[in-house]
Specification:
single chain, Porin, two-stranded antiparallel sheet, about 10% helix, about 50% strand, signal
Length: about 375
């Protein structure tokens, strides 16, 4: 959406400049002076939306069942989201906060695994327990500062390149799972915005990513799951690289009576950030492994502008219905083939549970207000 909003801003600024020049010439004539053109608002676009969506085959590191060697790491998740986007004089701001509610295969604390508690104090004996599905709150913020706007130029619009921007942002989450994750990270870098046909755009942002804080109760001293250990279970990872991309395009080649559809998507890579319980050193004997490159994506989303189809152009994108494919490997940087949270033993052989790789259909409805 950012390119289309920037295009609106560029058009508005160009029209304002032309109007001001015309009024200056009219003021030289012996007629009643025209009124001064109104200043452009500080926020050219403000867009707020709520979404309900459903992930059919989600996964969560460490959440799985192992019944006679048959592993099931799938969990459904209901997602409730609020999203804010605005276009201001120097760039864009994007904020979203979501609540993910899992089914029983991804349990809330005090369960340490699906269907029960493993207590180090009881010699790691398994105690059956019925725990509700976990709840996670995740917030994300990204802000851009366009070079064309900052430097009052069009030098950074060349061919398909629409603009270059500084980009900053942060992520934060909290979970009521046993390990009590509380992720905090910041990002900073550049964003390159490109034009696509049919009012489309493609953005790519090379960034520095620093997850400076998180929590893992399994690595906390006294938990009994790892040695050496962290006194409070709080991890702090090394800065690394990231690449975030996203795109949007209307399906404008469809017949006029079918132009209610668009496609969009995103893909992001995050580099290795130390060990999975940084600053603890890598140690296979202590179940501490190096992190891997994380790939988090929604490569394709097909959206139907339901409100436009029912009520006409005036209500375009007031109600969107969409379906998407979601793929996420090495979730949170955990090595899906080796990390303690991603593997188990079947017949004495270490195998991946699939809980650190997500491949799922994803669908929902979005309403603008």
């Amino acid at each position: 959406m950012s390119f289309r909003m920037k295009a609106v801003a560029a058009a508005a600024l160009s029209l304002a400049a032309l109007a001001t020049g015309g009024l200056a010439q009219a003021a030289d004539l012996p007629v009643k002076a025209a009124k001064k053109a109104p200043d452009l608002p500080f926020f050219l676009v403000i867009d707020d939306r709520v979404t309900f969506s459903y992930i059919f085959d989600a996964s969560q590191p460490g959440a799985f069942t192992n019944t006679n060697g048959v592993i099931n790491s799938k969990t459904t998740k209901q997602v409730y989201s609020f999203t804010h986007f605005d276009l201001w004089a120097y760039g864009t701001n994007f904020f979203t906060i979501s609540m993910f509610k899992s089914d029983h295969n991804d349990p809330a604390a005090p369960c340490t695994q699906t269907g029960g508690i493993v207590s180090p104090a009881a010699g790691f004996a398994f105690t059956p327990a019925s725990c509700a599905g976990a709840t996670e709150i995740y917030g994300l913020f990204r802000s851009t500062f366009g070079w064309n706007e900052i430097f009052n130029t069009k030098a950074f619009t060349q061919g398909p390149l629409h603009n270059i921007s500084f980009e900053v942002g942060m992520d934060a989450n909290t979970e009521n799972r046993y390990f009590g994750a509380a992720k905090r990270d910041v990002v900073a870098g550049l964003q390159f915005a490109f034009d696509l046909p049919y009012k489309g755009y493609f953005n790519v942002a090379p960034l520095v990513y620093w997850e400076f804080a998180n929590h893992n109760s399994f690595s906390q001293c006294g938990a009994g799951f790892s040695a050496p250990c962290l006194t409070d279970g709080n991890t702090s990872f090394k800065p690394t690289w990231a690449i975030e991309t996203n795109y949007y395009m209307d399906l404008g080649f469809l017949p006029a009576n079918m132009q209610y559809f668009s496609i969009s998507g995103r893909a992001a890579w995050y580099g290795k950030k130390g060990t999975d319980t940084e600053p603890l050193p890598a140690s296979v004997a202590n179940n501490v492994y190096p992190t891997k490159v994380e790939f988090n994506s929604e490569p394709i989303r097909l959206t139907m502008d339901a409100s436009k189809a029912i009520w006409g152009d005036k209500y375009s994108h007031f109600v969107d219905v969409w379906v998407a494919y979601r793929y996420w490997q090495n979730k949170f940087g955990l090595d899906h083939n080796n990390a303690f949270a991603c593997t188990t033993f079947v017949g004495g052989t270490k195998v991946s549970t699939g809980s650190c790789t997500e491949s799922s259909l994803y669908s929902g409805i979005t309403v603008k207000f």
